[in-house]
């Protein structure tokens, strides 16, 4: 969704000698050389290519690329090139950023509920079996869903903050808080990970 961050993971172990290059629609947008003498993103890589405007983050350890505060103009094909001493590797990522109206965005980010009622936080994305969905409340790990239904936890198994008042939907990844209290007010963060992509909401 527009405004979210998305991480494109290299998915491989990077050697110190490897050159990492990221392209967006065949334009170089990020690079790490093996000796780390040349590390650049966006306009530093190509003068006049300011389309991301400081919204790219490059992980120097893994080579992964994060696009923050996404817009629908960020949709397109991203190409990763790893140029190594022994072999080269190329991976294509197709990214689609969908927009929402201001009213939908406010509804998605802000929920109001009366004390004692239930509230459901919906990821708003299609859940795949390989996804790992993790929920946080004020940076505290409170719930997780993995591809294995036997390896899920909510509430007391992760943290005792909610004391059996959390319900996880294993089909959609949504989180329901029952019998809400004023102490439940705050920021909830959703992390969706698989081997290739990481999404934060």
**Strand order, largest beta sheet:** 5-6-1-16-15-10-11-12
Strand count, sense and barrel status of the largest sheet are: 8 strands, antiparallel
Helix-strand category: mainly beta
Output the number of helix runs: 1
Content of β-strand? 35-45%
Mean pLDDT: 81
Overall body shape: elongated
Distance between the termini: 9 Å
Q: Helix and strand succession?
A: EEEEEEEEHEEEEEEEE
Low-confidence stretches: none
Helix proportion = under 10%
Using the CA coordinates, give the radius of gyration.
20 Å
How many β-strand runs? 16
* Quaternary class: single chain
Topology:
Elements (H helix, E strand, L loop, with lengths): L4 E4 L10 E6 L2 E6 L6 E3 L14 E3 L6 E3 L8 E8 L4 E8 L6 H8 L9 E3 L10 E6 L2 E6 L7 E2 L11 E3 L6 E3 L10 E6 L3 E4 L1
Antiparallel strand pairs: 1-6, 1-16, 2-3, 2-7, 3-4, 5-6, 7-8, 9-14, 10-11, 10-15, 11-12, 13-14, 15-16
Descriptors for this entry?
mainly beta, 8-stranded antiparallel beta sheet, 201 residues, 5-stranded antiparallel beta sheet, elongated, 37% strand
Overview of this structure, please?
The chain has 201 residues and is mostly beta strands. The chain contains 1 helix and 16 strands. The strands form 3 sheets. Strands 5-6-1-16-15-10-11-12 form an 8-stranded antiparallel beta sheet, with no helix packed on it. The protein has a 5-stranded antiparallel beta sheet with strand order 4-3-2-7-8, with no helix packed on it. Strand 2 and strand 3 form a beta hairpin. The protein starts with a strand and ends with a strand. The model has no long low-confidence stretch (mean pLDDT 81).
């Amino acid at each position: 969704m527009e405004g979210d961050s998305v991480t494109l993971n290299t998915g491989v172990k990077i050697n110190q000698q490897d050159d990492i290059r990221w392209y967006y629609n065949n334009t170089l947008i990020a690079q790490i050389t093996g000796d780390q003498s040349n590390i650049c993103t966006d306009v530093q890589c190509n003068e006049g290519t300011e389309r991301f405007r400081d919204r790219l983050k490059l992980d120097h350890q893994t080579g992964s690329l994060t696009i923050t505060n996404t817009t629908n103009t960020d949709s397109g094909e991203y190409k990763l090139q790893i140029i190594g001493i022994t072999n080269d590797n190329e991976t294509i990522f197709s990214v689609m950023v969908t927009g929402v109206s201001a009213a939908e965005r406010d509804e998605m980010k802000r929920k109001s509920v009366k004390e004692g009622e239930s509230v459901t936080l919906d990821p708003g994305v299609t859940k795949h079996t390989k996804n790992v969905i993790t929920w946080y409340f004020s940076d505290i790990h409170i719930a997780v869903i993995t591809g294995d239904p036997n390896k899920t936890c909510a509430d007391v198994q992760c943290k005792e903050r909610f004391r059996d008042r959390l319900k996880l939907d294993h089909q959609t990844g949504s989180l329901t808080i029952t019998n809400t209290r004023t102490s439940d007010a705050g920021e909830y963060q959703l992390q969706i990970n698989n081997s290739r992509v990481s999404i934060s909401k």
